[in-house]
């Protein structure tokens, strides 16, 4: 399984960017997205940027990854899904009956 990790660009070149995510800064291949500005959030899979993210979306993905780690360690993780806790699930519009 390959999991995308949000990383923020701290320095960029034409085909690469130094990005900060969980852990140490990492050089990321940006050839699929083109040159990115510092501050941009990217979704990175195995060293290659595949998608530009908003900061809000990046935070949601980072929280979900933190929740996976917490669950694996047997720790509570509800606080990482504050936007979902206490809310009834909703079907997407295309699945709702007319």
Mean model confidence by pLDDT: 93
Which stretches are poorly predicted, pLDDT < 50 over at least 5 residues? none
C-alpha Rg (nearest Å): 16 Å
Q: Main β-sheet: number of strands, strand sense, barrel status? A: 5 strands, antiparallel
What fraction, in percent, of the residue positions are helical? 10-25%
Q: Numbering strands along the chain, what is their spatial order in the largest sheet? A: 3-2-1-4-5
The rounded distance between the terminal residues' Cα atoms is 37 Å
Overall number of strands: 5
Classify the secondary structure makeup into a structural class. Answer: alpha+beta
Our estimate of the beta-strand percent is 25-35%
> Which series of helices and strands comes N to C?
EEEEEH
Describe the structure.
There is one protein chain. By secondary structure, the protein is α+β, with helices and mostly antiparallel strands. The protein has a five-stranded antiparallel beta sheet, with helices on one face. Strand 4 and strand 5 form a beta hairpin. The protein is globular and about 45 Å long. The termini are far apart. 16% of the residues are buried. The mean pLDDT is 93.
Question: Would you summarize the structure shown here?
Answer:
The protein has 98 residues and is of the alpha+beta class. It contains one helix and five strands.
Helices and strands, with pairings:
Blueprint: E1 5-12, E2 16-20, E3 26-29, E4 41-45, E5 48-53, H1 55-72
Antiparallel strand pairs: 1-2, 1-4, 2-3, 4-5
């Amino acid at each position: 399984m390959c999991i995308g990790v949000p990383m923020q660009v701290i320095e960029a070149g034409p085909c690469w960017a130094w990005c900060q995510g969980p852990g140490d800064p990492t050089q990321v291949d940006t050839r699929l997205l083109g040159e990115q500005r510092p501050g941009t959030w990217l979704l990175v899979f195995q060293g290659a940027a595949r998608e530009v993210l908003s900061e809000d979306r990046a935070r949601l993905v980072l929280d979900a990854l933190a929740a996976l780690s917490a669950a694996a360690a047997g720790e509570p993780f509800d606080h990482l899904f504050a936007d979902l806790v206490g809310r009834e699930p909703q079907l997407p519009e295309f699945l709702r009956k007319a």
